[in-house]
Amino acid sequence: xxxxxxxxxxxxxxxxxxxxxxxxxxxxxxxxxxxxxxxxxxxxxxxxxxxxxxxxxxxxxxxxxxxxxxxxxxxxxxxxxxxxxxxxxxxxxxxxxxxxxxxxxxxxxxxxxxxxxxxxxxxxxxxxxxxxxxxxxxxxxxxxxxxxxxxxxxxxxxxxxxxxxxxxxxxxxxxxxxxxxxxxxxxxxxxxxxxxxxxxxxxxxxxxxxxx
Amino acid sequence: xxxxxxxxxxxxxxxxxxxxxxxxxxxxxxxxxxxxxxxxxxxxxxxxxxxxxxxxxxxxxxxxxxxxxxxxxxxxxxxxxxxxxxxxxxxxxxxxxxxxxxxxxxxxxxxxxxxxxxxxxxxxxxxxxxxxxxxxxxxxxxxxxxxxxxxxxxxxxxxxxxxxxxxxxxxxxxxxxxxxxxxx
Lengths: 212, 184
Known about the structure:
Helix content of chain A: 55-70%
Keywords (chain A): Cell projection, Cilium, Cytoplasm, Cytoskeleton, Mitochondrion, Nucleus
Largest sheet of chain A: none
Protein name (chain A): ADP-ribosylation factor-like protein 2-binding protein
Largest interface: A-B, 30 and 24 residues
Order of helices and strands of chain A: HHHHHHHH
Structural class of chain A: mainly alpha
Region (Disordered) (chain A): 172-212
CATH superfamily of the domain at 28-146 in chain A: ADP-ribosylation factor-like 2-binding protein, domain
CATH class of the domain at 28-146 in chain A: Mainly Alpha
GO biological process, one term (chain A): maintenance of protein location in nucleus
Shape of chain A: elongated
CATH topology of chain B: Rossmann fold
Oligomer: heterodimer
Order of helices and strands of chain B: HEHEEEHEHEH
Strand order of the largest sheet of chain B: 2-3-1-4-5-6
Shape of chain B: globular
Number of domains of chain B: 1
Number of helices of chain A: 8
Distance between the termini of chain A: 46 Å
Strand content of chain A: under 5%
Helix content of chain B: 25-40%
Largest sheet of chain B: 6 strands, mixed
Function (chain A): Plays a role as an effector of the ADP-ribosylation factor-like protein 2, ARL2.
Number of strands of chain B: 6
């Protein structure tokens, strides 16, 4: 578990099935279960989820110190908040699509069918709960803020940042502003699906007053 | 964290244990961890956050969470109780002035619901130093014999010499293993 790296920027999703729609099962219970699993699988590709992740990175990466051997206590709080966000996102997505969804039943099904669930999707979900993997993800992003020109991992986000600031490293305060500008672009694309249902978390989507 | 935490329990890797390493500041927690892990121990600084070390012992993967013990940090310990199978409580056997404080913190910790059932190893550290409290004294002052809801043991040890460190881990791993992986 130590040093495990995960690809959380979702560039390599070529070999992931996009949907489960074609999968017909014998009984309704199995069918709904498979549909639920399919919805979770789709999260890998979900633009909305990726933009939530980006907002999270932007908000918290500066708390992570690549020069520090030990972990700051706040890393734990940030990780917990992230897990809450992921959890809420998955559950709300399922509930939007399956109004009759019942978490307790789903959990029982998961338990009884766990032998069937060797798929990478659950490894994917479980990597969220791995603190060390989470820390590396945040640190990678933190390093990319310090050295934009050398960044490879988050080039998706950095392209617009880099062009906006030229080649000079930008002080953190300014970066926050730049990141917000950057994120408002993706906000516009998804403004129709922003019913995130995320309650009790501190994440706020950057608002662009010009759109109001 | 409903879904993810349940998933994690379902898919819990076999033969993996989470150990929580706590105690007052300057007890030697991080030094013990470094020593077990075969690292240099002469430059260990006070822990202000936490360390995680993963190592293999026997057939098991041990994830040890070492959280700083300063007074201002102790209220954060609770953030690390989840899924803890065993507690290593480290005592500075030389710091007689604070053994009362040490007892209070330990007894408080053991009331935690999320730690119910976890095995407890008390390390009476710094036995290499002349004047260190004896095992008997530690046992009495910390009121260890009043502990009934946890499997526990107390061992004299020295992070400096390595005395009893592996013996302690061995006891802990066996105790957890009997409970978790060998229910018969």
